[in-house]
């Protein structure tokens, strides 16, 4: 079907508009950019057309004589047709609802030709539901749905709440959303709310004036001001202290921050993406998270599924991480049987755990083909009692810095620490299990600032 649509330059548009003059105008504009337009004047007619005709795009007015255009959006999404909604300028909240129902964009009436062309081009460029882009996961998988939703919300400026287990790729998804949206080349900053020191949290986020408190020798803009015009990822938002929850609500509601010690508030334009592995709704019920803030943050809520529910991605991820590690000049590939077995594992630390396992395997490899044993740490002979700790932020000593572990060197350092821990600080035993000489181990410990304190 995709081929058929690509070979026919004229894409098929379902235009749902009851106003004859507006319909004629839009029809002409759509035709001028290659659209073959079928018009429906109401909900029932549109749903009927969607049920037996194929369309590449639907442009839906929300206020229709026989009901809300939202039902048409639902029908289009169910039929795998990207939907753009049109709304009056005083009904933008309806557009938010339509986006939640799966619309990929909204335009406010009266639409200019250039805005219409942009919306249509973007919607046609977005993967239509049910059609996989080469290299992207199959669309009916949980992650396929997540990515489709990400593509849709990327174009809006509304806050997003990304939920998912530790290491499942919440920050990765947030970055992807930003890349797909109009703020792609604007600042992107990430703050781990769980790691904010209590006494400095407010000024780190919202800034302070010089002399605002003892020790404030310089003015500091704070993360919100630094992200002005761009996006701020608030990771572990569930860990934000109640006083800061109130201040965050103010930014989201009024677009203003109050730097500590400043005489007047400052306006900022920041898209907030919040991420959490916690059940924020349960926290709201328990009284530890503000309900009003929850509703503000969760205009769009996106779930990143745990890796065990997207096992089909594991072979590709392994290939990608092996290639990433091989950028250091060493060429490796994973043994297909190992890949099969690794794909069956549960990976409680999700993609981060898989990535570390692959990077570690490359660090330790002495053959170009990585067998299953290469991915296990501690090595298979090791005592289970000292097995790899939960690879989540809470327990992993070197992954709690704001950026997650990223370089091969960091993984190498972590591997050395674990080897030393495992062998009770014995360098000889650690070097043997790492399959490197004692002097190499010593050199690397120096390099990573580990010498003299064991693990
Ligand atoms: N789809 C993906 N493809 C490639 N790498 C990915 C993907 N998803 C996540 N990763 C990588 O996995 C690691 C963990 O991802 P990320 O930091 O986004 O997880 P997280 O859910 O935000 O973790 P946490 O809950 O600890 O904050 C990162 O190195 C990231 O680059």
Largest sheet: 5 strands, parallel
* Span between termini: 58 Å
Assigned CATH class of the largest domain: Alpha Beta
| The CATH superfamily title of the largest domain | P-loop containing nucleotide triphosphate hydrolases
Q: So how many helices?
A: 19
Average pLDDT over all residues:
81
| Gyration radius, in Å | 26 Å
Strand order of the largest sheet: 2-1-3-6-7
The low-pLDDT segments are: 1-8, 127-138, 381-401
Offer a quick outline of the entry.
Helix content is 42%, strand content 14%.
What layout of secondary structure does this protein have?
Layout (H helix, E strand, L loop, with lengths): L1 H6 L3 E6 L3 H13 L2 E6 L2 H10 L4 E5 L1 E2 L2 E2 H10 L4 E5 L4 H9 L4 E4 L4 H13 L16 H13 L5 E5 L5 H11 L7 E5 L8 H6 L15 H5 L4 E5 L6 H13 L1 E2 L8 E2 L3 E6 L3 H7 L4 H7 L2 E5 L9 H13 L6 E2 L1 H9 L5 H15 L4 E2 L37 H15 L4 H8 L3 H10 L8
Parallel strand pairs: 1-2, 1-3, 3-6, 6-7, 8-13, 8-14, 9-10, 10-13, 15-16
Antiparallel strand pairs: 4-5, 11-12
Helix pairs in contact: 3-4, 7-8, 11-13, 14-16, 16-17, 17-18, 18-19
This protein binds adenosine-5'-triphosphate (ATP).
What report would you give on this structure?
This protein has 19 helices and 16 strands. The strands form five sheets. A five-stranded parallel sheet has the order 2-1-3-6-7, with helices on both faces. Strands 9-10-13-8-14 form a five-stranded parallel sheet. A two-stranded antiparallel ribbon has the order 4-5. The chain is globular, with a radius of gyration of 26 Å. Helix 18 packs across helix 19. The N terminus is likely disordered. It folds into three domains: 124 residues, Response regulator (Rossmann fold, 3-Layer(aba) Sandwich); 164 residues, P-loop containing nucleotide triphosphate hydrolases (Rossmann fold); 140 residues, Helicase, Ruva Protein, domain 3 (Orthogonal Bundle), CATH 1.10.8.60. With 455 residues, the protein is an alpha/beta fold. 42% of the residues lie in helices and 14% in strands. Adenosine-5'-triphosphate binds next to helix 8, helix 14 and helix 16.
């Amino acid at each position: 079907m995709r081929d058929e649509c690509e070979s026919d330059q004229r894409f098929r548009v379902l235009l749902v508009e009851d106003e004859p003059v507006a319909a004629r105008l839009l029809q002409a504009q759509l035709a001028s950019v290659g659209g073959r337009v079928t018009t429906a004047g109401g909900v029932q007619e549109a749903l009927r057309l969607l049920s037996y005709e194929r369309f590449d795009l639907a442009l839906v007015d929300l206020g229709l004589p026989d009901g809300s255009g939202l039902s048409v959006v639902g029908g289009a999404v169910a039929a795998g047709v990207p939907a753009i909604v049109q709304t009056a300028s005083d009904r933008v909240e309806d557009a938010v609802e339509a986006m939640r129902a799966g619309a990929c964009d909204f335009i406010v009436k009266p639409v200019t030709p250039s805005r219409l062309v942009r919306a249509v081009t973007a919607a046609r460029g977005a993967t239509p539901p049910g059609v996989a882009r080469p290299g992207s996961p199959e669309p009916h998988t949980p992650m396929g749905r997540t990515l489709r939703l990400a593509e849709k919300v990327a174009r809006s400026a509304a806050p997003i709440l990304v939920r998912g287990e530790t290491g499942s790729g919440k920050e990765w998804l947030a970055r992807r959303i930003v890349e797909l949206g109009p703020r792609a080349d604007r600042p992107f900053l990430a703050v781990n709310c769980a790691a904010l020191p209590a006494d400095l949290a407010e000024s780190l986020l919202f800034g302070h004036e010089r002399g605002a408190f003892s020790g404030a020798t310089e003015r500091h803009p704070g993360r919100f001001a630094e992200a002005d015009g761009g996006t701020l990822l608030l990771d572990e938002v569930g860990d934000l202290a109640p006083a800061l929850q109130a201040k965050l609500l103010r930014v989201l509601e009024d677009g203003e921050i109050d730097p500590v010690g400043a005489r007047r508030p400052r306006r900022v334009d920041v898209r907030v993406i919040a991420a959490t592995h916690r059940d924020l709704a349960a926290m709201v019920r328990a009284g530890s998270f503000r309900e009003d803030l929850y509703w503000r943050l969760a205009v769009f809520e996106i779930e990143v599924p745990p890796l065990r529910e997207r096992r089909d991605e594991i072979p590709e991820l392994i290939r990608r991480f092996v290639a990433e590690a091989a950028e250091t000049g060493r060429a490796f590939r994973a043994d297909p049987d190992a890949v099969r077995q690794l794909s069956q594992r549960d990976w409680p630390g999700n993609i981060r755990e898989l990535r570390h396992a692959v990077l570690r395997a490359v660090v330790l490899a002495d053959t170009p083909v990585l067998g299953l044993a290469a991915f296990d740490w501690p090595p298979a002979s090791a005592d289970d009692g000292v097995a790899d700790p939960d690879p989540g932020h809470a327990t992993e000593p070197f992954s709690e810095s704001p950026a997650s572990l990223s370089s091969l060197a960091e993984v190498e350092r972590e591997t050395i620490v674990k080897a030393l821990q495992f062998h009770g600080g014995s360098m000889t035993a650690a070097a043997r299990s790492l399959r490197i000489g004692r002097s190499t181990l010593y050199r690397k410990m120096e390099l990573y600032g580990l010498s003299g304190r064991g693990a």
